[in-house]
Amino acid sequence: MTMNRKWQAKAALAGLAAALTLAGCASNGGANQSEEKAVGEAKANDAPAAAAETSAKAEPFTLQVAVWDEKLKETVQQTFEIYKKDHPEADFKLTVTPVKEYYTKLQTALIGGSGPDLFMMNGPNFNKFASLKLLTDLQPLVEQEQLDTSAYPEGITKLYQYEGHQYGLPYYLGSIGLFYNKALFDAAKVPYPDETWTWETLRANAAKLTDKSQSTYGYIAANDNQSGVYPLIHQAGGSVISADGKKSGLDAPESVAALQFMKELIDEGVSPSAQQQLETAPIQLFGSGKAAMVPGGSYDASTLYGMLGDKLGVAPLPAGKQAGFLVHGSSWVINAKSEHQQEAWEFVKVLSGAPGAELLAKNAINFPAYKDAVALWMQSIPSLDMNAFVKSLEHTAPYPVSKNTAEWQNAIIEEITNGLLGKQSIPDAAAKAASRMNDILAKE
Amino acid sequence: MREIQIRAPEAAPAAAPRAARRTPRGRTVEMWWAYAFVLPAFIVLGVFHLLPAAASLAISFTDWDGLSEIHFAGWDNYAVLLSDDNFGKAGLHTFLYALAVVPISVGLATLVAVLLNAGLKGQAFYRTVYFIPVVTMSTAVGLIWKWLYNSEYGPINAALGFLHLPQPNWLSDSRYTLVSIMIVGIWAAIGHHMIILLAGLQGIPQSFYEAASIDGAGKLRTFFRITLPLLSPSLFFVVTTSVISSLQLFDLVFVMTGGNPALLSSARSVVFNVYEEGFVLFRMGTASAQAVVLFAVILLLTVVQLKLQKRWVHY
């Protein structure tokens, strides 16, 4: 909202400037737009001839961009510089809002008819935003320009389709792997994890790596949907949501088995308790050397490398009945009410296309959705072999979403947390989570 | 509050020669001037407080989701509240919070104010220390306390461990979550109360104490018979505002639970519920209904306090 106020302030300033410079003829200047145009013309007149040539329609404009990740700031700024080469009249304002408030703030602003011109979007919130008609339908643009969407993994492209239309262009995806601390493995003389590991190997080695006197743990059964709970459910052969998106899969015996596995590791003391995880996030615990292994996303790689340096390694997640996880990716979308539809679309194409993906890769931010940039990303942290993230993608299933994903995700977190805390049995937790989720799904 | 009366002679000394002209018309002109001066404040109050309040009262009778068409919903939103588990919980937590925070913070603030007023060395220093939480953003307060409370790495449990005392999981054990938030609430409120009470104490004429000591009254007796009754107007103000602000508990819950649904179920407050209902789930109707109920409760409690004050406040 502040961002919007700033925007308004800027518009007002621009208007004021126009009114001042063109005081003679601007006596009837009512609409903001005409005043901004006036400023544009005034500038174009002053500008050197070279710039004037390119600015046949060069009205200065500002693109408001919103993301939830502080790490992205520089990368998006650099990508904008590339975009600016073709649009010298463009200006840009990036707002970073912590993810906890990001969607709340965004939805409030968009519903009020304001908000950023383009912004990042995730799977759990996409369907709601698209169904509320807050996003621009990109399908006509994609078809008209024959944009090649096969440059992205199919699952991620599909995640941002609503009623068969493309609404977002994929930016990065969250591949999940098993991070491990080489120093702790060396000290316990345990071989590093690899793709042969199963749940049983994990359990046995986690016990060897646990040192209660040092209060270090072998593994963290992370109470986190994307990196902890969903992958285990998938590996056990269960599902979070049925294929038609109408029913919860949490009460299926396979899903219960996955939660039971987490609870057992906690009870055996090889994993920090759910209580400890509520106070200190799993990635934080692992990064400060308190655990030998943690499941985490490709988006955690650069943070963890910053904390552990050369001690950091990553392997594919251990397999249960099957290997893999539910893959999620984020995309760029456009505000349906933005006044700069065409300009925003041009910038989205740069961000999600080769130039943006290459910067994303070089800066080691996250696994680029643009396939051709993946190789570049893999070299971005020289001492860390990130091959596991790429190989694991072969065994993935789509991320579970429906219209009100965020709402039922909260119900799942609450019930599973209470189960892991021991406030209710695991089968009860699964049953309650499933029934609350089904109630929400029934209302969609 | 006292009414402010504007009288002609005081209003404009320069116009003294014309002071005699107290015609009804002159009075009206002055009235208009008075309104003109009040207007800017009134506009701000109107636009940012009165209008939204009226709007949410209206919205509470609709099914508005912030986007689609508005339909009249009658008393439906209020009926839903009766069976809403979360709202019941939130009401209970908020009530318990106020019940603990108001008396304890006012009690401790009185104690601190009396001690400071007694001419303690370094009075200015302590006054500043106690007042710091008041001028600190509550989000920052919440974040720092979250770290202090960390059961494994926080200094509170480190100290308790050193003394071989039990080390509870302050925030993540649902039995203590609300209590932990209350402690922060009390800590943060003391400074505000203390400053007002200190001002009240300094308004008590020294002669009362001299008379009391000549009559041979002890320290405790002087406190209960002289200090407390003469401090009662300040205490009344502090209690009333403190009740209102405790019932509006939000930031500490928001920050200290980190929005985790499992922790929230043992700490959600009414205003948090309003926020969640309105700006996370976009059910503006029920959110407004909850806000209206809270408003009614606060209004009622304040009226009751205004009535009761006649029995214990000495002006």
Automatic annotation (TrEMBL), chain A:
Q: Can you list the GO cellular component terms from the UniProt entry? A: ATP-binding cassette (ABC) transporter complex, substrate-binding subunit-containing
Against InterPro entries, the record matches this protein to: SBP
A GO term (biological process) for this protein?
A: maltodextrin transmembrane transport
**Listed GO MF terms:** maltose binding
Q: Give the matching Pfam families.
A: SBP_bac_1
Identify the CDD domains for this entry: PBP2_TMBP_like
* Signal peptide positions on this chain: 1-26
On the tree of life, the source organism's domain of life is Bacteria
Query: PANTHER family annotated for this entry?
Result: MALTOSE-BINDING PERIPLASMIC PROTEIN, MALTOSE_MALTODEXTRIN-BINDING PERIPLASMIC PROTEIN
**What protein family does this chain belong to?**
Belongs to the bacterial solute-binding protein 1 family.
Protein name, per record: Multiple sugar transport system substrate-binding protein
Query: What species is this protein from?
Result: Paenibacillus methanolicus
Automatic annotation (TrEMBL), chain B:
Q: What is this protein called?
A: Multiple sugar transport system permease protein
Topology relative to the membrane: Multi-pass membrane protein
CC per GO annotation: plasma membrane
Q: Which PROSITE patterns match?
A: ABC_TM1
Q: Which family does this protein fall into?
A: Belongs to the binding-protein-dependent transport system permease family.
Question: Origin organism of this chain?
Answer: Paenibacillus methanolicus
Q: Which SUPFAM superfamilies match?
A: MalF N-terminal region-like, MetI-like
Q: Which InterPro entries match?
A: ABC_transporter_permease, MetI-like, MetI-like_sf
Which taxonomic lineage does the organism of this UniProt entry have? Bacteria, Bacillati, Bacillota, Bacilli, Bacillales
Record localization: Cell membrane
**Sorted alphabetically, which PANTHER family does this protein's record hold?**
ABC TRANSPORTER PERMEASE PROTEIN, INNER MEMBRANE ABC TRANSPORTER PERMEASE PROTEIN YCJO
Which sequence ranges are marked TM in the entry? 32-59, 95-116, 128-148, 176-201, 222-244, 287-306
- Which GO biological process entries does UniProt record here? transmembrane transport
Domain ABC transmembrane type-1 spans what residues? Answer: 91-305
Keywords in alphabetical order: Cell membrane, Membrane, Sugar transport, Transmembrane, Transmembrane helix, Transport
Tell me which Pfam families the record gives.
BPD_transp_1 (PF00528)
